[in-house]
Prior knowledge:
- The complex is a heterodimer of chains A (about 450) and B (about 170).
- In chain A, the strands form four sheets. In chain A, strands 5, 6, 7, 10, 12 and 13 form a six-stranded antiparallel β-sheet that branches. A four-stranded antiparallel β-sheet of chain A has the order 9-8-11-14. In chain A, strands 1-4 form a two-stranded antiparallel sheet.
- In chain A, helix 2 crosses helix 3 (about 35-50).
- Chain A has about 450 residues and is of the alpha+beta class.
- Chain A is rod-shaped and about 130 Å long.
- Helices cover about 30% and strands about 20% of the residues of chain A.
- In chain B, helix 1 runs antiparallel to helix 2 (about 25-40).
- The radius of gyration of chain B is 19 Å and the shape is globular.
- Chain B has about 170 residues and is mainly α.
- Classes of the chains: A alpha+beta (about 450), B mainly alpha (about 170).
Amino acid sequence: MSEHELEKLLGGFAADTLTEEERQRLYRAALDDQRLFDALADEQALKDLLADPAVRSRLLKALRGAPDSADGRRLPWREWFRRPMNLALAGGLASAAVAVVLGTTIYRDSLMRAARESPAPREEGIVQQPAAKAPSSQVERQAASQEKDIPIEPARPDAGRTDRRSRDRTADPKHPPTQPSLSLRADTSPADKPVGQDQFGETHPASPPVESAPPSLDVTPAAPAAGQAARVLSARSLFHRSSEPQGIMSDRPTSGHGEGEATELRQPEKKRLQPIPNTLGKAEATARGPLGIRYSLMITGPGGLDLEIDPATAVGQDDRPRVTVQTTEPGYLSIRAIHGDQAAILLPAGPVAARTPVTIALSPVFAELRGVAQVRLAVLLTRTMHDAGKAPPQEATAGLMIEQVSPESPGARAEQAVYAVDPRSERSRLLVEMPLHLRPN
Amino acid sequence: MMERDQVLAALRERILAFATSRVSRDMAEDLTQDVLAVLHDKYPHVTALTELVPLAFQVLRFKMLDAHRRALRRGEYNQASVDELPLADPRGDPARQLERKQAADRLLAGVSRLGARCRELFKWKLEGKSFPEIQRLMGQRSINTIYTWDSRCRQQLLASMGGSWD
């Protein structure tokens, strides 16, 4: 008798499910096999128990009411939780749900934070290339001049997340607090400057008469380092904080001067960051924020892609260099290239909307200031047309907060730009000088 | 077809060997003699193998239980003849009824500790289903799997009851 046959007969013995023929075989085998006989004798007790209808009924009732029946009956929910596997499953699902909720919350918070801290809009597809370290620049010297009248503001939590490569260059020992004085006599009037298309075929508007008087720009020796209070707030964070809504404000100066519109070469950028339209039609803002600009140097890289590079990088005409400027406030923007007593107007004073990138081609620099290795770009931002019509200030605005941002800095966003913000919101004009290194072709 | 005497002779040999494995040799011989005496005296009409063998198992079990009970109660074996003890209907004995009830309770407790598969298999067996029917209910291709499961389940149940069905 095979092992399975024996198991079958033994299994049916106690439950009394054997047929007559099976019983015959089983008992005959038991008389010949002592082990089988012993097994049957042991099973006799169970057979006697199960032969009792009362015991059998109790057993069946208990088995049919068993909590985890395998015939598909629904189990009580409390019994379901008694199983370790079910407990593990419930725990895993609960953990996953908590993780999803937390993740969603954190992601939403990060989006909101990123929206608050987002840098100036940049064109899609721009490839960032780390540029060589800039030499000591006029920007840095200008930063060194900030010393006085900087309000003490509490540190913002998000201020530490931005690049602090030049958070406060006034404290940089490599930049001495004193710099030689530079003087500029711009004897070129806007009328003398070419009006038309630049080398990119983009139109430059006619220059308004605001530059009729030769500007004179003097850069005084830089001031000592700024106080500690200025370091807690970076220029970049101040720039973007000032870009947040501040009540009823006009984003566009409405008293523009007609043909003197600013040259805005990069319309997609402008569209992306189109500010709230001025619904009041007022030229002046009812609430004034600090004046500040963000500027970056762009060239045309391989494949025709625009590259934002370190502003201290030497550029040639074949790079098709451009400078992009954004402002914190609506106002009037003008840009001049200065070398010694020579000056070239790149952008006549014209209205500009807040946070709207204005890109200026630098081709006139190569055309009008031939052979020079370095020029300064004087970027003047005024709140009113009246201020724009005045003679340009002789020197760069003192007390500016200047910060250069590069993508290689930890936590920095993909941008190569310089932020220069005047923390004093009562100022009506802001003059920032940007050094521009030229490479002979 | 085995004759009754042949069956009884074979039974005597098996019963003696079985009893010897559980009790002393002398007591085993006494138990064997007692079982055969009951079969001979009280059940002379039972001749079929399929009836005589299970009857012998039943008588043997009762005799062993009685002997065990007396040994526990008195510390020694009762010298009185067990032939006079009633064997046909054990339900009349309150002590046996109590033992039976306790055994049933232990069996219920043991069954409740079995796994789902064993409980299902045990239930279907109590419902009178054959192994082929159980095979279909459990969705198994091989009936040998059912035999193996049943054997293991009975071993688990026996172990959960302390190694004895009684």
